[in-house]
Design goal:
By secondary structure, the chain is mainly α. The C terminus is likely disordered.
């Protein structure tokens, strides 16, 4: 637990430092693009040098964050697997679990593959969520200040909307998140069904491998092959359902991603054409908008992974609950 806390704290500090570097990189947009607009070669070269320094520091931070994230996943798996094995091998637990139906089938699958998958997904999603949250807090303030002076002109009237680009980013990401949940919500149950069918196929293969001599003695190869084929067909059916689920979700996530290429420019364009923003200022505002909406779109970008994580969490959690549950006492015989 202490190691996990140390790693989590180090990741937090690295992400904060990265967010500060990204603020400096966003501020760099204004002088760089203004130098381009003025055809100022000297200032252009100076800003290229500044870009090189900022990106090198960000690269070092990215490498450090990757190492810390991988170590976090390693420690998560270490703690989870040791906890499950300890509960499984307590006197009487393994034998009792084997008699409790589907939850007791393939305990090795739960402690090996499911625990590995859950640890990796938890580490990745947790770090990305923390990074998105810090970026959101950091760049909302920047974007609010940048868009506070935007004045809109319509039919001879002028008006302004405080934090205009912040509200636009929230609306854009909110619509994408709602649409992703609506289209991809069924992926959680589909992933859970797929993992269950996979474990059944693995169990059939293991059983056949362990009983090859007896199967050969009774000439049951054809029946064994049919049993494996039935389990394989169930896996493929579950996978087909997932294929269609991911395909439907891609319409949302990919479409959202392509629109994101022009969304910040479209939002900032009215102020630019009204003369309230320079070209560099518009690019700086667009960069801040991208950071805010990329933080807000964490749910959209990771919905299929979240569904996978949720399904794996349910499998591991239900297995652990079954391990630690107290056996139901048998009723005493009537005297």
């Amino acid at each position: 637990k202490k190691q996990l806390l140390v790693l989590a704290g180090a990741i937090f500090l690295v992400i904060v430092a990265t967010a500060y570097g990204q603020i400096r990189l966003n501020e760099w947009n204004r002088p760089f693009y203004d130098a381009l607009a003025r055809r100022d070669l000297r200032q252009f070269m100076v800003q290229l040098g500044v870009f090189g320094i900022i990106t090198f520091i960000l690269l070092v931070l990215n490498v450090g964050q990757r190492w810390l994230s991988e170590m976090l996943k390693l420690k998560l798996r270490q703690g989870l697997v040791r906890d499950l094995v300890k509960e499984w091998l307590k006197p009487g637990h393994a034998a009792r679990l084997a008699r409790e139906g589907a939850i007791g089938v393939n305990p090795d699958q739960r402690m090996h593959e499911d625990a590995r998958h859950l640890s990796e997904l938890s580490g990745d999603l947790g770090v990305m969520l923390l990074q998105s949250s810090i970026l959101l807090v950091t760049f909302v303030g920047v974007l609010w200040v940048l868009s506070s002076g935007f004045v809109f002109h319509y039919q001879g009237r002028s008006f302004s909307i405080p934090g205009y680009m912040v509200w636009a980013a929230i609306l854009y990401a909110g619509l994408g998140s709602l649409l992703s949940f609506w289209v991809g919500g069924s992926l959680i149950s589909k992933n859970a069904a797929r993992y269950q069918r996979e474990s059944e196929l693995r169990y059939s293969l293991m059983q056949v491998n362990q009983n090859l001599a007896e199967i050969a003695r009774h000439h049951d190869e054809e029946e064994a092959a049919k049993r494996i084929d039935r389990n394989l067909s169930a896996v493929l059916k579950a996978m087909r359902r997932l294929v269609w689920g991911h395909t439907d979700l891609t319409w949302v996530t990919a479409g959202y991603g392509w629109l994101s290429l022009v969304a910040p420019i479209l939002v900032a364009a009215p102020a630019y054409f009204a003369g309230d923003l320079s070209f560099g200022g518009m690019m700086m505002a667009a960069g801040a908008f991208n950071q805010v909406q990329s933080a807000l779109r964490w749910f959209v970008d990771n919905f299929s992974t979240i569904a996978d994580w949720r399904a794996t969490l349910i499998r591991v959690a239900s297995f652990r609950r079954a391990l630690i549950a107290e056996p139901i006492a048998k009723a005493a015989p009537a005297e």
